[in-house]
Amino acid sequence: MGEDSEPGTLPEAEPATGCDGSAAIIPAAEPAPVQADTPPEAPPPIGLPPVEDVRDLDWNAIREAVAPAAVRARMRATVEAFETLLDSEAPAGLLFDSDRTAPDEQVIKVAAIDPARPLWIIGDLHGDLLALEASVALIDRRAAEEGSEPPAIILLGDLFDDEGLGLELLLRVFELILERPGRICVVVGNHDEALSFDGSRFASSVSPSDFADFLNANRAHEWIERAGKLAVRFFAQGPHALFLPDGLLVAHAGFPLVDLHARLEETGDWNDPACLSDFTWTRAHPTARKKMPNRHTRGSTFGHEDFAAFCALSARMGRPVTHMVRGHDHVEDRYAVYPAYAAHPLLTIVALSRRLPRESFGPYARVPTLARYVPGGLPQVHRLHIPAEVVNAVFPQPTPEAAPAAGAGEGSCEA
After folding, report:
1. Which residues contact 361 (CB under 8 A, 6 or more apart)?
2. What CA–CA distance (Å, rounded) separates 174 from 230?
3. What is the SS3 assignment for 267?
4. Rounded CA gap, 26 and 24, in Å?
5. How far apart are CA 262 and CA 273, in angstroms?
6. Any idea which architecture 59-394 has in CATH?
7. Whole-prediction pTM
8. What whole-number distance in Å separates Cα of residue 188 and Cα of residue 366?
9. pLDDT tens digits for range 345-395
10. pLDDT 10s digits, 86-134
């Protein structure tokens, strides 16, 4: 299968509790006697805050900000500055680096979230420079309107592949990290982790892998090659998961599956390569209760009881998890909450303004999403209604003759 899973999307994602996110209160005349064997009452579900539709950004200014030639013109300066950053003895200057207990820790327990600093989460981009610039424009506008501290941003990974502007997107992320030290965190996605360099050629263990092909085709260009090498170095040390203090788990894909639980509880080693792989590669099934881990593929699937089992495990290990935000699955509406996961809610978000070549159905221009952190609840989804003519100006829609056949380019189930 490709990166898409079944949508499982609520039409307008109504809150699972009251309109303000709180549980409804129903007065009772006299409490009924409680039997000794009555199970404890389950906690109220964590609802999705009202989805916000954003239509009034300056789309012409955002279109002008998507300037691939300008990004490439700055490439040497960007690459040199980012090489200096990675070569320094200090950590890479990312958000949550101060919460690492060791420089090579890749599953981070975050001690606190600054309530004065808005925290935003951007899903898969796959070279979508338009969606990134629109997301940053909204984030910065909100901070200016609210007079808040400069906002922080978590990117959920998968910066390249699937055509688009992979090099330019990668360079813009490097620029954002340099421009906003300590305010950007990039969680490793499976396409990011899959990229490698053996000293002579780039390769990728995922399909599609057109970014590695692009890098190899441009090996004679010193700064493109150095940008590719930087990407490999950067993602080799990047975080695969964040445990936030309110119980929110942030990862590209999933969590360690049940066959790893006993070993994980015994060793306490969250950086076990098998655990890192599950955070980065596993897929959510919208309705299944349980799925047997399939270790013949990194893209094994989990169900809602599997997530509940992980939440229980993480609580025993001192990292309580009650809900999750992730990317990875390219849902039709670019966000999804699955009703089957009501006890431990799960939000999938994707920041893609276009239909990818391996997506067979739906309109070409899409509504990318990002989400704003809400303490104690699911992040609030914001939908960016980029005009279709802007999407087509940046990413011209392929003609029917040039478009791949349905399913073409999906590659392996580890896409």
Report:
1. 332
2. 10
3. helix
4. 6
5. 15
6. 4-Layer Sandwich (3.60)
7. 0.86
8. 24
9. 999 999 999 999 999 889 999 999 999 999 999 999 999 999 999 999 999
10. 998 665 689 999 999 998 999 999 999 999 999 999 999 999 999 999 9
